[in-house]
Each structure stands twice: as structure tokens, then as C-alpha cells.
Amino acid sequence: MGTLIRTGVMTNYLKVAQQLSFDPKLLLRKLGLSSAMLADPECLIPGSAAVTLLKESARITQCPTFGLRVADLWQLSDLGVVSVLLTHQRTLREAVATLIQYRHLLNEFLVIRMEDVGKKVIVREEFVADETGTSVQSTELVLGSLSRMCSTLLGAAWHPLSVHFTHDAPPDLRLHRRVFVGKLEFASSFNGVICRAADMDFPNPIADPVMARHAQRLLEGLPGAREPSVVLEVRKAIYLLLPVGRATIEQVAQGLGMNVRTLQRQLESAGMVFSDMVNGVRRDLVVHYMENKSHSLGHIAEALGYSAYGSFVRWFEAQFGMTPSQWRSAKSAKGR
Asked: What's the pTM value of the predicted model, to 2 decimals?
């Protein structure tokens, strides 16, 4: 069945389709899905099907904000038992850390990283698809849901400094301005939010440690609550660490709580080599970046972890048989 997601984040898909006078039955059938699956927040569906569903729905309805519309209707309770655990964390920082810990129960495609930079906190969030590639719709769905979670827990105290998207801005930003608080930054080097550390540590007035422990016990006893494969976790870590130049096996192993040799053994058992995985993620990301004309080639090189532009050009030429400039020229000529 491949990588799975729990449909809690997709629960409002059918409402959005109805708002746009779109009957998705044929599309759902084509993807092996049904309305009943999407209506059940505990149902597990293939992640690739969810990504394609959002992408195709946006195309058919000609609605570039389809994924964000789904997020706009999202409620914390759509996450089921996980929502109880999140609601009763002492601070937003602890809630995000809990979301990171249990994200595999919700969405095996989801990758979140939280890091302190001086008096600020950067929360990077990506939807790391496989054969379906990246998608504006799925990216805005998960970012919109994260924003809704933060505003639900903090209320008026939630004031992120900025919200970042790697894709270009849509023609109409009214929905983005309603869903997201803070400055909108498009064509950015990452997807996520930057906020004040003080906001992340703001006390949650309704936190109840007893309820949190109860919810945690329930989560640990959920049927099928399996840890994701180490291959998927490594791929997601590489996806986030590349833009900041830290996609080394040492950094990834540390993030996964193991030593380098243990990680190498686990990857070898799965028939994988770390350097090949880094190269594979680079290939996935570079096409996405190259197709976005607002990204300069120098910016793309940095986003892929290259400090020297010449190294990026040599890698690109070895992978695609032409320079980045030639690739873009050929792509433009084909589009005319």
C-alpha cells in the first residue's frame, strides 16, 4: 500500500469540493479512494493518492488554493487522540515537539524540524512525497494545519514573524492572509514559520498533565501504531537538512538518536547507501526548484547544500547531461 497518511487532515476535503460545485466521485474512484474513507479521520490511505487528489482537484476546479481551503476548515479535534495530547502540553514548543514525536501516526510523509536561532524559533515543515513529487496543494495544507494548531493552542498570543513557502505566490492572497498570521514570504528556501522563542514558551492555560499522560497511554496502545522505516526517516531528514548545508550522515544519525555505525547497518539491511539517498533527494528537489523561474541558479545551489556554485553545476551536468542554464533554456523552448 506504500506510505500512508491518516485522513484526519483531509476530513474537510469533501466540504471544499462541495463549495466549489465539484463532484469528486470519478477522481476518487480512479485513485482507489471513496467519500467514506475521507469522512473517517482514523482511516489510513496511501499518501501518494492524497497528494494526487489535492493536485488534480485544484487543476479541475481551477482553484490554486484548494489545499489551503481544506486547511482553513481544519480543527485540532480532526487529529483524534493526538489532539488531546497536543491540547494539554504546557507550551506550544512542547506541543510541536509532541507533534514531531507522533507524526508517524498521522502522516508518514510529514517531516517537521524545530530549531532555535537566537531569540527566534524556525519550524520547518515539509510534505515529502515519493513518486508523486512535490505539490503546492499538500504543502499549503500541512502549513495551514500547523498554523491552525498554533492559533488554537495560543489564541491571540500566536504572532509568528513570518510564514515561508518555496513556491510562488498565487494571484489572490486573501485566503493566505486569513489563515496565516505574520508576513508571507514566497519563493523562500524552505516551507515553515519563524516565530519568537518567547511565543513558543508561552504557558498554555488549559494544559492538564493528567490528561496528557492519559492521552499518551492511549496513543501508545493504538493498533497499527508502528514506527516508520528508517529509510523514510533518513530521507525526510535529508530533505530538511540539505538547504542548511547539514545533510551529513553524522547530523542525520544524531537527529534519529543513534550513532553513525548503527544507522549505516540499518540502511545496509534495507539495501540503501546514505550518499545515494542524498543524491536522490537532490534530484527530486532540483527539478522542483528549476521549474520555479523566480529561483536564481545561485539560490538553487544553496538550497541543495552547495556552498560553491561550480560544484552545483558539475553535479547537475553529471545528473542531467547539461548545465542548469541549458536545462532552463531547453525547458523554456519546449513551453513556447
From this structure: 0.74
